Amino acid sequence: MDDDSLVAAARDLVMRPFPDDGPSRGSWLVGETESVPGGHFAPIASSPSLYETPADDDGTIGDIYERVYTDFKIRRRQAADALAAIWGPPRPYSFAAELERFWADHESLSPFEYDLALFTGEDPFPSWRRHDRLVALLLGQMDKEFPIVLTLAVIAGP
Q1: d(CA 39, CA 20)
Q2: How do residues 100-109 score in pLDDT, each as one tens digit?
Q3: Residue 84 is part of which domain span?
């Protein structure tokens, strides 16, 4: 997704209502566009999964993933600059509290909070408050079988 498309998508998703029902675990974790109760997700970039590929077998998967993360972090900075041009500088936000709750008591998180916490980990990401929503540039990988994904997220509340 280029910067103009990103800005247009962010503006649209901020105003779009969230669905009232639907899956609590979305395909956004594999880099697909998805709207679920409490969130909209639009992929900016995603890598293929390298799980059980020759790169996984020969041990080069770590180097490949490191390069992908480096490239996606650069792309996230560019995306943050594009959104900062319309909304001002981002504020760091993280799901560290939710991740801590996960480690303490798996039962205390909703499936949606679980996905957000495990996908992003405790690292802060650029975010903006728009009305009652959090606009975020999330970068993560749900598990080793999943691709690395950089996604634009518009989330209710937190």
Answers
A1: 11
A2: 888 887 667 8
A3: 3-156
Rounded Cα–Cα distance for residues 156 and 134 (Å): 6
Rounded to whole angstroms, the Cα distance separating 132 from 65 reads 35
Spatial distance between the Cα atoms of 145 and 51, rounded to a whole number of angstroms: 5
143: number of CA atoms within 13 Å, CB side?
Answer: 4
* Total domains present in the chain: 1
Amino acid identity of 155?
Answer: I
Among candidates 146, 143, 96, 102, which has minimal Cα distance to 121? 96
What is d(CA 9, CA 69) in angstroms, rounded to the nearest whole number?
23
Condensed to tens digits (0 to 9), the pLDDT of residues 47-63 reads: 988 777 887 788 888 88
Residue 28 near residue 43, CB atoms below 8 Å = yes
**Average pLDDT in the 137-141 region?**
96
Helical (H) or strand (E) element with 125: strand 125-130
**Bridge-partner residues for 93, per DSSP?**
125
